[in-house]
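Work Package 3 committed the consortium to producing structural models of liganded targets before the mid-term review. Because experimental data for this complex are still outstanding, the team generated a predictive model from sequence and the ligand definition alone, so that downstream docking and mutagenesis planning could proceed in parallel. The input record is reproduced below exactly as it was submitted to the modelling pipeline, together with the SMILES string for adenosine-5'-triphosphate.
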Amino acid sequence: MQSPAFLTISDLWIERGERVLCKGLNFNVSVGEIVRVLGDNGAGKSSLLKVIAGVIPSLEGCIYYFGQDITQDHSRLQQDTLYIGHLSGVKNMLTVEENLRWHCPDVTTDKLHSTLSILGLLPLLSTSIKSLSAGQVRRVALSRLWIQRKKLWLLDEPFVSLDAEGVAILESHMKQHVVAGGVVILTTHQALTSIHSRDIDLLS
Ligand SMILES: Nc1ncnc2c1ncn2[C@@H]1O[C@H](COP(=O)(O)OP(=O)(O)OP(=O)(O)O)[C@@H](O)[C@H]1O
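The resulting structure, written out as tokens with the ligand in place, is given here.
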């Protein structure tokens, strides 16, 4: 018998603000895949990620995690998921280090420093988020991908504000993650330059 997919989205309907999005959406995601969710502005890409993350409920349909229906209780999937939303979850009043320690209280100083070094943020360790550029804030948000070990990455517009070097660093890290058996589901309006993805198109 074939083993169940990592994630199965089955006849999923999403409603937001009395508008129905994703009318009967079906797709599977396998271990080792990068899935790019495409669609026009307002098509429902962020909403779909939020439904998978268990942040908002679906109107109808089911989500299966390794064949187990988790539609009503996302806790098993949430344990294995790192969701970085469009607004990135970075706190303006904290420094770069405080932000990361807030999200990842168990991180060692070595790991923190090596991650910030990869992302070019080490000199900004004690700088308050409110003094950073948009691209630097995005790098702080994404640094959790190097620290928190989770199978599923749900990334909403992770490339926004990144320069070419930042895009290359993130694409390379995604590639390593899926080669190691992870899964990435992301939304982006830009083409991926060095990684292969499977595209799911949400028609608006
Ligand atoms: N909190 C909310 N309350 C009500 N409606 C919402 C809410 N958030 C989003 N919507 C609506 O849901 C629809 C889909 O929004 P969503 O953010 O999922 O789209 P998107 O495809 O990610 O768009 P974009 O490409 O612009 O980021 C839009 O019509 C939007 O107005």
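Reviewers should note the following from the model. The helical segments are 45-53, 75-79, 96-103, 109-118, 134-142, 144-147, 164-179. These observations will guide the Year 2 experiments.
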